[in-house]
Specification:
The chain is α/β, with parallel strands linked by helices. It has helices at 40-84, 87-100, 104-120, 125-153, 167-174, 191-199, 210-213, 235-256, 283-288, 300-306, 312-326, 360-365, 367-380, 396-416, 433-437, 439-444, 453-461, 479-491, 512-518, 530-538, 542-552, 558-572, 577-580; strands at residues 6-9, 11-14, 17-24, 158-162, 178-183, 203-205, 219-223, 228-231, 272-277, 293-298, 330-334, 386-390, 425-430, 448-451, 499-501, 522-526. It is 51% helix and 14% strand. The longest helix is centred in the N-terminal third of the chain and has 45 residues, at 40-84. The protein is globular, with a radius of gyration of 25 Å. It binds phosphoenolpyruvate and magnesium ion.
Length: 581
């Protein structure tokens, strides 16, 4: 039999192996299907749900827009909501679906385009301008209809193959028994890759031509350890990977025994090993894997998972449950870090989103939303084990403004007679070089800091973290990165335990001896990575690691640092995983 197996290479983004059929997800295509339908009732039901969902999204955007843009400009969104309530328009769409028995997305597109054409033909300039708003509504409803469509298509376990993935896509797919991800574009620390690691779903990103080389229904092997994708593997390849899957499961079982053991080096230095919480239902895995707390809750995930910002009450319930489940361990809740490669609630097109309206910048411009989150955190901190952290800080005044807003929230809750904790610890992410350079001054203003290498590396080396074209330049072992981390640890005026790292570098087995050697005592990583890292730390000698770190601080190229660290790992650490992968 002819062997038509093909091997594609990409970036190993989330570890693990998977074998399943391919599902090609072509989200870029905005074309609408004009196929006939059989079940009219179901089509109308789907349409009504998509309209309701669109209304909900617009209502949320409307209230946010009032805060940021003022009543006048926010009125655009109010007008859009009114169109969705127009009984003539919606009635026509229903009527046509019943009569023509065509896909609702086609009828929506056709009917709303007619509406737009009418407006464009108007002699009034105002009417012409409003035609663009109608385009937004049309796309919003169609997008919501499509989401329903692809969800219903994933009926068995598949490997999703697509051009790019957003963190929101990654979470949505995971709810539909997806076994692996392959993308044409994307980098190791893109948020979609991070979420895939949290979900423990193997992923290979930046495979360039995956969507051209893979057909729907092809059998695929995803090797998320080595960044390899095998399309239509032969029997021996399948057998080889089935064996690896079994060995990996056995190794995971062995690691489970370390759950209640501390992460202490062979010469007695204790490392506080915490987890990053990237998706809301990860709490059990975090506890099961023996995390000593949560070093980073990416709360923007609440927004991605629900397509809208959660209100104060639902945030309060979520944070309170989280803190209670983890007590007495600490939980560090990070304020919403939207922007960058994580979507914003407004349809804002920025030329450089990673340098734009992101993290604390967005929150300080949207105080209504920021306050909702702060109030929820203050109220949830009943057991005093919650810390609050702000992302994308670049200027000390941002900390001052945040403190002022927290004080306002304290006053409001006092006046309202609502129970809360007034002594919330405040920390910052160290992600922007300005903060690293001035770590002494910045840390004087807060209780703790967490080094976010994912962004720190991209801003320090001017390399987009999500762009596979420059992934070779995204070097965590660049001497400038190593020296910056050293500078931060040396100059931060906080207790050693209050200087942690929550970027992906903290989970890199080869980098861990360097980080520990540089003096870090606290690491926060994906929950799934904790057991193996614990094992590595236990086989590590702190005095030796210190010497290796000192050696690395004198080197001039990333290749040199990388070579030293790989040699050290190879000679000194017991990493059984290497034998399996
Ligand atoms: C980081 O930048 O290292 C970090 C942990 O934050 P995020 O990956 O969410 O940007
Ligand atoms: Mg970051």
């Amino acid at each position: 039999m002819k062997n038509n197996s093909k091997t594609l290479k990409g970036i190993a983004a989330a570890p693990g192996f998977a074998i399943a059929k391919a599902y090609l997800f072509a989200k870029e295509k905005e074309d609408v299907s004009c196929a006939s339908i059989e079940n009219v009732d179901e089509a109308i039901h789907n349409l009504n749900e998509a309209i309701e969902k669109s209304k909900k999204e617009l209502n949320k955007i409307f209230s946010l827009a009032i805060d940021k843009l003022g009543d006048k400009r926010a009125a655009i969104f109010e007008a859009q909501i009114m169109i969705l309530d127009d009984p003539i328009l919606i009635g026509n769409i229903h009527q046509r679906i019943k009569e023509e028995k065509k896909h609702p997305e086609f009828i929506v597109h056709d009917e709303i385009t007619k509406y737009q054409n009418m407006m464009n033909a108007s002699t009034e300039a105002y009417m012409k301008e409003r035609s663009q708003d109608i385009e937004d509504i049309k796309l919003r409803i169609i997008r919501n209809l499509k989401k329903k469509k692809w969800r219903s298509k994933i009926t068995s376990e598949v490997i999703v193959v697509t051009t790019t993935l957003t963190p929101a896509d990654t979470v949505l797919f995971a709810k539909e028994s997806v076994k692996g991800y392959i993308t044409d574009f994307g980098g190791l620390t893109s948020h979609a890759a991070i979420v895939a690691r949290s979900l423990d779903i193997p992923a290979v990103v930046g495979v360039k031509d995956s969507t051209n080389n893979i057909q729907n229904g092809d059998t695929i092997i995803v090797d998320g350890f080595n960044g390899v994708v095998i399309v239509n593997p032969d029997e021996s390849q399948i057998e080889n990977y089935q064996n690896k899957i079994i060995q990996l499961a056995e190794y995971d079982e062995q690691l489970a025994e370390l759950r209640d053991v501390d992460a202490v080096t062979s010469d007695g230095r204790r490392i506080n090993l915490m987890a990053n919480l990237d998706i809301t239902d990860e709490i059990e895995t975090i506890i099961q894997n023996g995390a000593e707390g949560i070093g980073l809750v990416r709360t923007e995930q609440l927004f991605h998972e629900n397509d809208q910002f959660p209100d104060e009450e639902s945030q309060y319930i979520f944070y309170k449950e989280l803190a209670e489940r983890l007590y007495p361990r600490k939980v560090t809740i990070r304020a919403f870090d939207v922007g960058g490669d994580k979507v914003l609630p407004f349809d804002v097109k920025e030329p450089n989103p990673f340098l734009g309206w992101r993290g604390i910048r967005f929150l300080l411009d949207n105080t209504q939303l920021f306050k909702m989150q702060i109030r929820a955190v203050l109220r949830a901190n009943i057991h005093k084990n919650i810390n609050f952290m702000i992302p994308m800080v670049s200027d000390i005044t941002e900390i001052d403004k945040t403190k002022k807003i927290i004080a306002e929230c304290n006053d409001e809750l006092d006046k309202e007679g609502i129970q809360f904790d007034r002594y919330l610890k405040l920390g910052i992410m160290v992600e922007v070089p300005s903060v690293a350079v001035m770590s002494a001054e910045f840390s004087d203003c807060v209780d703790f800091v967490s080094i976010g290498t994912n962004d720190l590396i991209q801003y320090l080396l001017a390399v987009d973290r999500g762009n596979e074209i420059v992934s070779a330049q995204y070097q965590e072992f660049h001497p400038a990165v190593v020296r910056t981390i050293h500078h931060i640890i040396q100059n931060t005026n906080c207790d050693d335990d209050d200087i942690s790292m929550c970027g992906e570098m903290a989970a890199d087995i080869v980098a861990i001896p360097l980080l520990v050697g540089l003096g870090l005592k606290s690491l926060s990583v994906s929950a799934s990575a904790i057991p193996n890292i614990k094992k590595i730390i236990k086989s590590l000698n702190y005095s030796e690691a210190k010497k290796v770190a000192e050696q690395c601080l004198k080197l001039k190229t990333a290749d040199e640092v990388c070579a030293v660290m790989h040699k050290y790992s190879h000679e000194k650490l017991t990493d059984q995983l290497q034998n399996i992968i």
